[in-house]
Structure formats: structure tokens, C-alpha cells
## 1
Amino acid sequence: MNNIIRKLPTKQLIGIAFSGGLDTSAAIVWINKKGGIVYSYTANLGQYDEKNMFLIIGKAISYGARKAYIIDCRKALIKEGLLALQCKAFHIKTANLVYFNTTPLSRIVTSISIALEMNINNINIWSDGSTYKGNDIERFYRYGLLINNKLKIYKPWLDNSFVNELGGRKEMYQLMIKNGFYYKKQRKRYYSTDCNILGNTYEAKELEYLDFNIKKIELIMCLAFWKKKVAVPIEILKLRYRHGLPTSINNIKLNIQIALIEEANSIGSRHGLGVTDQLESRIIETKSRGIYESPGVKLLYIAYERLTTGIHDEYTIEQLRNYGRSLGKLLYLGRWFDSQSLTIKEAINKWIATIINGEIILELRKGNDYSIISTKSDNLIYNIKAITMEKASSMFTSKDRIGQLNITNFSIENTRKALLGYSKLKKILW
């Protein structure tokens, strides 16, 4: 079954995911001029680079959209984001700095929310600005069809007519001017951005060259901590968790999750926390580069991971890491609601996250430089009496340890015999 429409369907209703940027602005103008009937849908994801979301409605209508809608996706995005945090659904990591899958998470709620809204308007053709080389084309495709299996997909960047006419930003800008639309020519950026309340992504253009370093980025959310003249005061803060979810920052209860994430972002951003430079494999197995900033999520992650390592044993932590990495990959691929993802999320949420209660005090300095000052939880299995090296009453004695060491003789002898066997076959290194 082929759901892809490769030529513009004229005189039919087309729903487009409209960001307000040049690409989708030009797409609306072009589709309208060629006879398509456009309905515009914009997801409010709490973008820090969009000061007034409602101006986007006016833009879309002026460019030729029959109707334009804004869908508030912030609560849904934060809900899925915190669930990903509980499950540690992050598979991309460099030097222990994590990419928190903020763009894949935003694609879940954007795709599903727009597809549901399109159903209300009886629109079965969906368009967006994703290109055929990136990841989003597959994410939008999968989540859209999950909601509406009759959905047809028309993407301008898969239409040769569109590409031949408007193959670059220069041509798109000229189209806007030619059709009487004043489109302010933006100051040249050396990268593209994608922002939501959980974090921001910088990619493409000059960032594809590995000698284009992070210092050339103008961060949207975070302080540029690498600048020598930037002074960052040390800050002490307290975070509380209950059932694996953050409940308060600095003793201020934040029952509304939007307010909690915004406060976490505010704190993390003034220290430049959560900025990473990653090389990753796209869905199509090509390598790409992304620079990411997630100040609030990073702050919450530090506290959650500390509590997790104190509350659960090593075997549970190992399972969480393995399952989290697998789930992170599934999330990246657009498979957040596949059976294997649902299984992992249910298991971690029920048996691991539910007992993550406690309080963490952190000292934040500059960039990703911080210290954990205090860890408290009624569920900690950390026990000083069991591990102290000082002379004190202990839960076990030296005689107990001698017995335990004697038991390991079986394992040692088994390993010794195996090594002797390997040596005869010259299978060891020395």
C-alpha cells in the first residue's frame, strides 16, 4: 500500500505542519498558487525561539492557508519527556554527556496532535517540511499513519516540480518577494535550529563540517559558558522526587509540570548546563552531527540518576541502562508506541521508577561542572554499617568474608582450567 503522493494534489484539502519558517512559508505559497487547498497546523511546543505563537496564524492565512490552527502540545510533550527520563531512554552519548532525544519526543506529540486535528476537519492529506535525507520524514510518517491509516502523505521536498522550482533558500525567498510578501531576510546562520521546551537542536549547513566548533553557536536557551568574560555565580539548589517524577525545586512545589520544566530550564540555562556535541547515526545509517542544549532536562537527570543508583541494586541498574538504551533507539526511530517500547516503559515505570523518592542538593558552577552535595531517601539501600572501613560494629565479620572467599575458589579454579586450555591453543595474549 503506497501512502506517498509524489505530485501536488490540486483542489484537495492538504494539512501542513507549519513552523512559520521560510521552508513551510514558501510551501504554503507554492501549494496555494498551484491549486492545493491548505490548512495550516502549528504545534506549540514551548519554543524558546518563538516569542508570539499567535502571529504564526496570521502568517499562514496571509500566505494562502484556508484556515490556520495552533495546537498546544506542551503538556503532552512534557509528559512523554518525563517518561523518557524515568526510563533513561537515551542511546546517544559522548564522554558521558547525553543527548536527551528532545527532537524525537517533540515529533511524537506534533505528529499525533496534528493528525487528530486533521481528522476533525476531514483532511486525509498531510504535508510537512521534512527532507528525504533526515529522520523526521519517517517519524512523521509512522505517527501520522498510526492515528489515521487512510492518511496520504504529500511532501513538497519529494515532489520534483517543487524541488526544481525552489531547490534552495534563495529561490524560496525570491518566491515570497515575487508574490508580494515582505519576508525579512534573516541574518545568515551557519546552522539550522529546532527548539521545544525540553531542548534545542543545532544541525546542518556549516555544522556538517567537524572543524566548525561549538564556540560559533549562538545558543538560544543556555549561557555560552565557554566565554572567558562570562561570570557564573555558584548556585546551590534542592530537587525532590516522588515516584520517579520531580515535584519541587528549592522547596517550591511545582504541581504544574510546565512550570516545573520552565523553572528547571531557567536554572540550568544560566549555568550553561546540558550542552553537548554529538556524532550519531541517522535512521538511514548515515552519520550526522548535532549540537544540543537541554538545561532543564539535564538538571532533572542528574538528580534522578543519583537517586536511582542509591535506591536500586547493581543488577537492576544494569537492566535499566540496557533497557533505556534500547528504548532510546526505538524512540529515535519513531517507534515509541511499538509493542517492545510499551513493554519496556511499563516495566521500568512499575518496578523501578515508582520507588524513586528523595531529595538531592546540587552545587552548579559553569557548563556541565557541578557537585552533588547531599543525597537523601527513605528507600536508599546504601548502608554505612555494611561498608564502613572504620572500626565499628558491622553486619558481617572477617570470618564471614573468609568463608565467602573460600567459596570463590570454585570459580577461580574453573577460570584457571579454562586459561590453561586456551594457552595450549595459543589463544591468550601473552
## 2
Amino acid sequence: MVLVSVSSALAQTLPSPREHFGFNIGDDYQLATYTQTEAYVKKIAAASDRTKLMDIGLTEEGRHQFMLIVSSPENLKKLARYQEISQKLARAEGLTDDQARTLANEGKAVVWIDGGLHATETVGTHQLIETIWQLVSRKDPETMRILDNTVILLTHANPDGQELVSNWYMREPKPEKRSLDNLPRLYEKYAGHDNNRDFFIMNLKETQNIGRQLFVEWFPQIMYNHHQAGPAGSILAGPPYRDPFNYVFDPLMVTGIDALGAAMINRMNVENKPGYTRLGGSVFSTWYNGGLRTTTHFHNMIGLLTEIVGGPTPEDIPLVPSRLIPNGNTPFPVTLKSGIIGSRLTTRYHSTTRCSTMLPAIATNYCLTFIRWAKTPSNGVARIIGGFRRRKSTRSIRPIRQIQKNQRRPLQTRLWRSLASFHVVVVCRLNIMIPS
């Protein structure tokens, strides 16, 4: 009886975003600052036994950069062991095939989810808050299965930028006059928008903090990097990316991106959410070598990028005639209704917090098989194990300094509150693919 009372009391102390920030994540004309976000994450970490809060280092302006690890309480008790397994499988040094298979069966899939790298792309930062809340508060079978089978690294990519951008936007007392335009200075102290060009050289403190977790401490099998915005006439651009892909990559990593991209778009279609474009529908590729997402490809991580529209100020999806007819790039396009052009419909994507209810079992089974095979290949430990290839000439890791409503109907929609939910679909869909 005492244990039940304690458990109930603990659950009641979990603050919702609305209770903490004073608004729901995604409400029109509202942004959270990093100071508010950091305080919220600390409250969650203190109240939830599904979390472990990590300070991964200071930013260029001296703020603490957090990474919140989310998993089941049982997994968190053995977190050091799962981290060790991920490291061993990534480096693939001194392991036989049998040993690698044993480790893969014992370990948990590690999934990285970040947000906020480009601070004016505010959906990415705020989906991180919403995702944390959903993962720590929900008790449905799908969420519990995610927590039981994955270790999720939820990482803020640019604290300084969120503080600057949110304060700048919220400075105007009249909501309808708020704007992200004309920021007075760079949202990363030295690089601004080019902080996503720093991951091949790691000059910036934020880059070093992130790189240390990705390439020294954790080696996640999957990393998911959030950006804005996708091409006009779409809502979200995501994997798989346009051809040709970078042919130096191991094909398993490339087809892994394809598999998770298929899982994402299938979930969107199941939930009647149009506007996902892929392949030749966007300009995004696997060729740039210095970005947060693309650098992970050289470590054989399944690096995912999505680019979504939206922001705190409501906006329209423009009419792009070439995108109105379904094709392989955009199977379920955003269209118009009754010739209405330019009008802002109040329909929003409804909440996808129950993203578990319509998971296609066949897609799940496919990806589970894929993940297990990626961890325990039959073609040799030295080639690829745990998603990372190690060539004979490669030495150990260098030091960090070196190294639509629920109807299938047309939309031209007002987007912001819905976009946080839209990202939750992708995030949940991604995590669902991992458990075995």
C-alpha cells in the first residue's frame, strides 16, 4: 500500500508542458526559452524514474547543454552496461562473431534525437520538449515497449540559440505582431547558421559536446536530426534522400535509411497526414560531409534528417501545381479543396500522441529484423557490426579535439501547434522500429 501511494505521488509530480510553460507546446505565438526548457527538464528528471539527466558540457556562452536519457527504470539501472555494449559493437575490436551476437542480444538499441541546432527552426526545439513529456508520462503498451527496448538520447543542440530566438520573438506583447525576423546577432556565438558545418572539424563547444556523445561515449545505432523547412507545397521532407547516394557508404547503412524512411511515411499515411516528400521530391542527400547528420554516416550510423514547415506564427502551405499529383516522391500530397487558394484553413493535424494505435505490424516486423541483422551480420565483425564499419587501416577513435483532420481531404493549413505533434509521429515511429 505504501509503495502504491509513493508511486501515485510521484506520478502526480510530473508537470505537463502547459503547467510549466503556461501554454501547450505548439500553441500559436508561443515559444519557450532555454532557461524555461532547462528548468522543465530538471523537474522531469527529478520526478520520473524513466530518465537520467546528463550535463554534456558548457556552450560558447556558458550555458549547460543537456542530454536527457530516457528508458525503462530497469534499463537505467544497467545503463553503464548498455553503453559498454554499444561501444564494443561500434569499435568491433577483439570480438568474434559469436561474442558480437551475444552482445547484440543482450544490449538495447540506442537512438539519438536532437533539436534546436538551427535556433530559428523552432519546431525542432519544441518537439524535443513534447517528446520528453510523451515518453515520461504515457503508459500505453507501445510506449512501454519503446522504453523496454531502447535507450533514447534526447539532446539539445543549441541552448544559446533557443534563449536568443525565443526572447526576441516573445519581446512583443501583442502576439500577432511577434516575428522571428531581424535577430540582432548570431544565434550561435561564432558560427550562426553554419554551426551545422562544424562537425568535420569540431571547433565549437556545442559541436564538441555533441561529438563526444556520438562518437566516443554512446555510438547510437540511429540518430535523428531535426531541421526546417521542407520544399514549398510539402509539409515534411524526409528519408530516403535523392540519388545518387554517397557510394563510399556501406550499403547496409543506406538501406537502413530507406527502411526507416518507409516506416515514417507509412505511419503518416495511416494517420491521414499528407505532405511527406522524399527521394527526388527534395534537395537533401547524403553527400555533404560536415553536418551533424551526415558526419554520422561515416560511422555507419543510420543518420536521419527531416525538414518540416511551420513556426509559432501561423502560415499557409502554398499551392505548387507540380506537387498536386501523387507520385513516388510524394505519394500523398497536400492539395486544395474546391479551388480555394491562399485562404488559411483552421484545420490542423490533430494530436498524434496516441501514435501507437495504428502501427502496421508488418512494418514493425520488417524493421526489427533489419535492426537485429545490422547488429549481428554474417559477413564478419571487422566489416560491420552494430551499424559501424571498421576498415583495417582505421585506428581507434581520435580524441574529441581531433576528431489533416482525420479525413483524406485537401489542406492549405495553419501550422504550428500541429507541427509539434507531426514531429511526435515521426519520433514515435522511429522509436517503434527498434524493439525486439
